[in-house]
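Board notes, transcribed. Complex of a protein with alpha-L-arabinofuranose.
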Amino acid sequence: MERICLIGSEGKGTIAPEIYGHFSEHIGGVFRDGVWVGEESRVPNTRGFRNFVIEKFRAIRPSVLRFPGGCFAETYDWRDGIGPRAQRPRTLNYWYRRDHRVETNEVGVHEFADFCRMVGSKPYLAANLTAMTPLDMRNFVEYCDMPENTTTLAALRAKNGSPGPFGVRYWGIGNENWGGGGNMTPEQYAREYVRYATTVDSANLTDAKYVACGANSGDIGWTERFMREFRAKGCKLWGLSFHYYCGRAGDCVDFGEAEWNELVEKAGRMQELIERHRAAMRTFDPEEKVKIVCDEWGCWHNEGTGPSKGYNLFEQQSTMRDAVITALTLNIFNNNCDVVAMANVAQLCNNLHCLFLTAGEHAIVTPTYHVFDMMKAHQGARHIRIAGAPRGISVSASEKNGVITLTAANLSYGETKEIELTSFDEPLPVHACATTLCAAPQACNSFENPYAVTPSAPVELPFDGKTLRFSLPAASIVSVALSAYGNPE
Ligand code: AHR
């Protein structure tokens, strides 16, 4: 029996909805025959976006969506993606050397803003710091958000179909500038960040939150050196974003217990990374004003395991292992909600750690999708501390509108765990409903078998109001909702 005890009075504050954020880059099949099919397509769509994705994505309340990169952003000119679609240029893009596909620019900032509105996401734009000027970036901001009938760029936006501003609150100032984004040193990048952010902020149209490029996973030196240089110069900075891909262990689908354990262990390092980056930042920001953002995370399996068999760059299958890693990672973010302000899983469709796999008229959700669905109640909720969380189980809990949500993931490949849940201080509501995502560790959804991994219907658990007992099958995720009135859904 494993014991989990809730301590509501020792929670870490509100879980930012932006922790449940997503990422959609112009790469491989994320848009092409993915999220975007075009208005003329036989595939049911709304203004070019695939209805399946719109409906399913909206259902999980995607708080924020990052676009258009990734590395793509650092050679992207936003002006190529505006104006009549048929007249937009076909351009060379960052990923051309990898997949030899040119960018059609069919999905520019207007289409992206439209998609965000349809699914209920806040747009998060990654702006080009490497290959455009600070004024180009400021003009992008002006184009997006200068009020109607003011400047020529606002008039151009109206002419292109959007009289009103897009309301972009999150701006990424560069991407991976230690690598594909200009191969800079942290000092160089910090100076560039200040130059660009200062120029962009001269407009200050939306009280925007600027995100700087942080480290590549455990590169604490980047964090320290960036923060030291940044502090010396100073200017507005809301978040510092590190990227952490936990990588792979064995094949994406064909793996055994050792590879399961290895990848789960690597994914669990997210906790240590948050602590180490936070500690490095605190030296230069003792009041902890700068937030931690992790705007790319996920598994990065071997290529060619997705339905396109390698045609779509980085497209990969997604099994119960990826689902458990999703729950583990989101639990870590929940449990660090006092310092983590945003996170974006990479990437939305036909790519790394994706939620959707599509091709022509085929469209399915992955096990990862279901985890985001099962955990959506944590968004904007009050965090509850867990005492005595047993080894081998990842767990987080929160409360919103009187409903306590607990998400537990069994990190064990083969061992079922019996759980006893109690509360140290606050009384638990008396109705407990559990939803379980459980299948063989290697199980995945495919076009042939789209529902192989699907959550159970909510099941009411017997509960005496003091100790709740439930089973956590091996390699599974269980979401428990405790409420006064039964199933809150
Ligand atoms: O997500 C794929 C790529 O991984 C992104 O473009 C880049 O930022 C990262 O290296």
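The pocket of alpha-L-arabinofuranose is lined by residues 25, 69-71, 175-176, 296, 346-347, 352 (CB under 6 Å). The chain has a mean pLDDT of 96.
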